[in-house]
Amino acid sequence: MSDQIRIVEVGPRDGLQNEKTPVSVAGRIAFIEALVGAGLHTVEVGAFVSPKAIPQMVGSDQVLRGVNHHPDSEFHVLVPNEKGYEAAREAGAKVIAVFASASEGFSRANINCSVAESIERFKPVVARAKADGIKVRGYISCVLGCPYDGEVKLQAVVEVAQVLWRLGCYEVSLGDTIGVGTPVKARQLLRAVAGVVPMADLAMHFHDTYGQALANLYAGMEEGARVIDSAAGGLGGCPYAPGATGNVATEDVVYMLEGMGIATGVDMTKLVAATNEVSHLIGRLPVSRVAAAINAKARAAK
Ligand code: HMG
Ligand code: MG
C-alpha cells in the first residue's frame, strides 16, 4: 500500500470546463490562490484549446500569468496541438498536459482526430517542450469505458500509455472519464499499465459518476499507485462525455488519506472555503460528501 500520495488538483480546469456559468479570469485566479493557500501545490489551471470547443477556458493565458508567482507550486495547462503549445509557452507554462484517448469514439468527439493522429500531433509538442525545458504530462481518457464505443480493452490503454511514456511524458494520468470503473477493474488497470510505465509515474484520474471513485483509488493505492487527480468540491465533467459528472472530490480524498494516517498537507477548512466560494460563483452546491458534511456542521453550530 502506498504511504505517500501526491494530489494533482484539477478543479480549475476539469472542474470548470463543463460549467454552464463560465467563471471569469479573476474568479479562477481567486479560486486557484485559495487552493494553493489550502496547501494544494500542484494545480491544473487551464487549457489552451479551441475557444469554440471549450469557451469556459478562454483567458487561460491570463489565469496562468495571474498565479505563476508561487515558486513552490506547479501549475499545469492542457495543450492539444502546436498552436496550444505556443500560447502556453508564451504565457509562461512550465508543465503542460497532452491528452489522448484509449478509444477512437472519444478521441474523435473530443479532439476531432483518431488516436494515432493525436499521437502524431503530440510528437512535435513534446519535442518542442523538451527543448524549451517544459515538462509534459500525458492523459489517457476512457481507460475503463467510453461513452461512444462502450467497453475499452486494457491492451488499448497499455498501448497508448507506452507511446506517451516513450514520447517523454514524465507521468501518465489514467482517466476514467465517465466514472464507470469498479475496484477490481481499477486494480487490473493499474497492474497492466505498470508493465509499461513505472507505477510511481502513473496517476489515477477517476470521475465519480457512479460513486466508485474513492473505492477505485483505494484499490489503485493497494497496487502502489501514488498520484491522485481530484477536484475541489467534486467539480467537473467533460462536454464530450455526456452524463459524466465530476472528478473525485479533493475533500473526500484528503479525508480518506488523513484517516489512513497519510499526511496531505491540506488544510480542510481552507479547502472547503475555496470550494464554497467557487460553488457560489457557479450557482450550485458542492457534490463532495465531506464538504457537505463540514458545511452542515458549521450551519448547525451557528
Ligand atoms: P479542429 O477543429 O480539428 O482544429 O479542433 P483545427 O486545427 O481544424 O482548427 C479549427 C479552429 O480552432 C481554428 O480556428 C484554429 O485556429 C482553432 P478558426 O480558423 O476556425 O477560427 N484552434 C485553436 N484555438 C485555440 N487553441 C488551440 C487551437 N487549435 C486549433 N490549441 C482541437 C481540434 C483539438 C483544437 C479541438 O477539438 C479542441 O480544442 N478540443 C479540446 C477539447 C477539450 O478541451 N476537451 C476537454 C479536455 S479533455 C478531458 O476533459 C479529459 C481529461 O480530464 C481526462 C479524463 O477525464 O479522461 C483530460
Ligand atoms: Mg477528467
> What ranges have pLDDT less than 50 throughout 5 or more consecutive residues?
none
Structural class: alpha/beta
Give the DSSP E fraction (strand runs of 2 or more residues): 5-15%
What's the end-to-end separation, in Å?
A: 40 Å
Q: Which cofactors or ions or other ligands sit in this model? A: 3-hydroxy-3-methylglutaryl-coenzyme A, magnesium ion
What's the tally of helices?
A: 12
Write down the oligomeric state.
Answer: single chain
Query: Roughly how many Å is the radius of gyration?
Result: 18 Å
- Write the CATH homologous superfamily: Aldolase class I
Helix content: 40-55%
CATH topology type: TIM Barrel
Query: What is the annotated CATH architecture?
Result: Alpha-Beta Barrel
Element order: H for helix, E for strand: EHHEHEHEHHEHEHEHEHHH
Q: What number is the mean pLDDT?
A: 96
Task: Describe the 3D structure.
- The chain is of the alpha/beta class.
- It has one domain: TIM Barrel (Alpha-Beta Barrel).
- Helices cover 45% and strands 15% of the residues.
- It contains 12 helices and 8 strands.
- The chain has helices at residues 11-15, 25-37, 60-67, 82-90, 104-111, 115-132, 154-167, 183-193, 213-223, 250-259, 268-282, 289-301; strands spanning 6-9, 42-47, 74-78, 95-101, 135-141, 171-176, 202-206, 227-230.
- It has an 8-stranded parallel sheet.
- Helix 7 (154-167) crosses helix 8 (183-193).
- The longest helix is centred in the middle third of the chain and has 18 residues, at 115-132.
- The N and C termini lie far apart (40 Å).
- The model has no long low-confidence stretch (mean pLDDT 96).
- The structure holds 3-hydroxy-3-methylglutaryl-coenzyme A (HMG) and magnesium ion.
- 3-hydroxy-3-methylglutaryl-coenzyme A is lined by residues 14, 17, 47-50, 53-54, 78, 80-81, 83-84, 99, 110-112, 139, 141, 175, 177, 205, 207, 238, 240.
